[in-house]
Amino acid sequence: MKKETLKGSISNFKKAWFFARKQKKLLIGYSILSLSLCLISAITPMLDAKGLLYLTAGKWDPLLMIAILVFVVEVTRNTCRFFAQRCSQIFFRETLLQIQYEMAIQILRLETEEIDHHSSGTFVDRLTKDTSDIANIFTQLNYSITDILSNIGVMAAIFIINKWIFLYFLIGLIILYFMNRIKMKRYFALDKELRKINERNTGLTTELIRGIRDIKVLNAGLTFLNKVREKLSASNQERYKMSGIMRKYQWITGSFQDILTFLFIILGIYLVSIQNLTIANFVILYMYQSRVYNLLSYMTQFLEYYKNFNVSAGRVFQVLDDDFFKKESFGKTHIGKINGDFEFKNVTFSYSNGKPILKNLSFSVSANETVAFVGKSGAGKSTIFSLLTKLYPVKRGKILIDGHDINTLDKDSIRDNISIITQNPYIFNFSIRENLKIVKEDVTDEEMIEACKTACLHDFIMTLENGYDTVVGEGGLTLSGGERQRLAIARALLKKTEIILFDEATSALDNKTQNSIRKAIRNMQGEYTILMIAHRLSTVIDSDRIIVIDEGKVVDEGSHEYLLHHSNLYRDLYEQELEEAQ
Ligand code: ADP
User: Fold this and answer.
1) C-alpha to C-alpha distance for 340 and 527, rounded to whole angstroms
2) Would you say residue 504 has pLDDT above 70?
3) Is the pLDDT of residue 310 over 70?
4) N or C: which terminus of the chain has fewer CB atoms within 10 Å of its end residue's CB?
5) Ligand 1 pocket at CB < 6 A
6) 365-418 pLDDT tens trace
């Protein structure tokens, strides 16, 4: 084994042990039980052989004794197996839970950019499949090692019985081992590729389910199915190649073992004929024969688990460690409740594709002010909100919240003080109550009802059969766009953050609901710092100030009246809207 690979494996084992060590007692129990199992298994061929000899010689009394012994041994073996399995299953369950929980924590810490660039399958497969290989490794290796040890015991017994037969088995084993290594090398190269393909497939199938409504109405089922078929066929092809290797290998090694058995009998007959071996020992060796090949299959299993573990561990620890997938980083300064003023100072920003989106952008907002952002689509308005919530970190220029550089603030100081209501808020497949509890676990019914009343949602909830306990489907499927937005507004109101961002939040609402929301916003004006992005300028006329953004820069700012007279862009946008309304 290469030094680098060995170093990597040791590091993987250490990291995996971190999650398993709490269950160490179970592992010790399992080790003792599986070692006992192996010892018991090692004596059964001897009993079988003796029994066979007594049977052929017609010695009934000792045969009965052997039968009783075999019975006791088998009952003990079964009981040991029962408890060993119990230990290993609890060990697996607890270890898996700990790794998966940590994975979920680290996935939540991923930088938004990493999520933008990877399919959901990248993380789903690692969280659900690869973690099992890690949780399994300790019991599996333990099992293989105890089996290998006991079968080495069998080899020692063979050595004592007859050195020629031992030598014969040893040579056979070495040849089988090298045949096996070739198979493993090819198998694992394909396995690595297969996992990558599977990640993409999981991403695609997730999209198939999530986008099912659009696929149906676009009548794009066939095109999508062709895509699914193409991807699935690639992974099936890879899987077929892998099983092909196994099939071929099994055929070759199976045939080789048949030859070995045949030659063993010839050799045995010869050794008996020259009185180098007694018939009794020949029968015992014959019984042991399958154990010798088991030794090889345990060694193969050992290597398989070990390699599988390394591939899975590599993929899981890429997510858990901080250097492969970038994680969000926050400062250390904690501020409890903020006043709510903030400033963008010469902020220049581009997403990972490098295209400049915000260019030297500067503006400031005072606490409790209501400010609207207007501009053409793609001007960079939503990006401003993403930077203010630190969904993307700012590297050039500064964002100051209550005078603190956003990069020095800890996560809670930012995210507990700012809420955002987007055009398409994500509503979880929980009940309405649980969706609200996400932001405040100890929310009372009164608080919940108050927030929903302000968000003009309470009356609607009351029409539902299960009221606040109605489950809303994945992504809030069973709610209309307007209801989803109002639920998101209620969620934000419950958080009682000082800064509230509305990103086109009223765009999907009918006029009546829009008016109620506008009323709700007006009720909040003066108490909270409110930022709004709206397509319809009529919705932002009431703001204290309107900032006009164009190509990532502030081009004008002022009241509606002021901008109508002084900003060409604003006037154009306004006139365009009037035209559309006619
Ligand atoms: P607005 O809200 O003014 O319509 P946005 O801030 O949403 O504009 O987008 C500004 C530009 O940034 C657009 O050209 C958009 O394509 C691009 N953009 C938005 N989000 C991303 C992203 N996650 N990765 C790369 N480009 C993005």
Assistant:
1) 10
2) yes
3) yes
4) C
5) 116, 351, 353, 357, 375, 377-383
6) 998 899 999 988 888 999 999 999 999 999 899 999 998 999 999 998 998 899
For 501-530, what is the mean pLDDT?
A: 73
4 pLDDT band, cuts 50/70/90, is low
CB-CB contact of 486 with 432 (8 Å): no
Q: Poorest-confidence range of 156-160, 189-193, 561-565? A: 189-193
Question: Between β-strands 342-350 and 418-421, what pairing exists: parallel, antiparallel or unpaired?
Answer: unpaired
**In whole angstroms, what separates CA 428 from the centre of its chain?**
18
DSSP-assigned letter for residue 539: G
- The reported pLDDT for the residue numbered 481 is 77
In whole angstroms, give the CA distance from residue 213 to residue 229: 19
> Which atom of ligand 1 is closest in space to residue 375's alpha carbon?
3
The whole-angstrom separation of Cα 207 and Cα 63 is: 66
CB 77 within 8 A of CB 38: no
Say which residue, 12 or 56, is predicted with more confidence: 12
Nearby residues of 549 by Cβ (< 8 Å), 6 or more positions away = 361, 373, 374, 375, 379, 380, 381, 384, 555
- Centre of ligand 1 to C-alpha 383, Å, is 6
Contact 327, 112 (CB under 8 A): no
For residue 17, report the distance from its CA to the centre of ligand 1, in Å: 43
Could you tell me the sign of the dihedral formed by the alpha carbons of 448, 454, 455, 457, in that order? positive
Cα gap 551→355, rounded to integer Å: 11
The CATH H-level (homologous superfamily) assignment of domain 342-581 is P-loop containing nucleotide triphosphate hydrolases (3.40.50.300)
Query: Which of 118, 383, 423, 424 most suits a substitution to test ligand 1, by most atoms within 8 Å of the C-beta?
Result: 383
Ligand 1 atom nearest residue 383's Cα? 6
Contact between 321 and 109 under an 8 Å Cβ cutoff? The reply is no
CATH number attached to the domain at 23-320: 1.20.1560.10
Tokens coding 33: 């039980």
Helix pair angle (3-20, 279-320), 10° resolution:
80
Rounded Cα–Cα distance for residues 128 and 106 (Å): 14
Residues 435 and 487: beta-carbon distance below 8 Å: yes
| Atom of ligand 1 at shortest range from CA of 377 | 4
Nearest CA to ligand 1 atom 17: 378
Task: Indicate which atom in ligand 1 lies nearest the CA of residue 549.
Answer: 3
Which atom of ligand 1 is least distant from the CA of 113? 23
* Ligand 1 atom 27 nearest Cα: 351
Residue 565 has pLDDT above 60, yes or no: yes
At 38 the pLDDT is 78
- Percent of the chain residues past pLDDT 70, beyond the cut: 97
Q: CB neighbours of 85 closer than 8 A, spacing ≥ 6?
A: none
- C-alpha 262 to ligand 1 mean position (Å): 73
What single letter denotes the amino acid at residue 114? E
Domain ranges of the chain: 23-320, 342-581
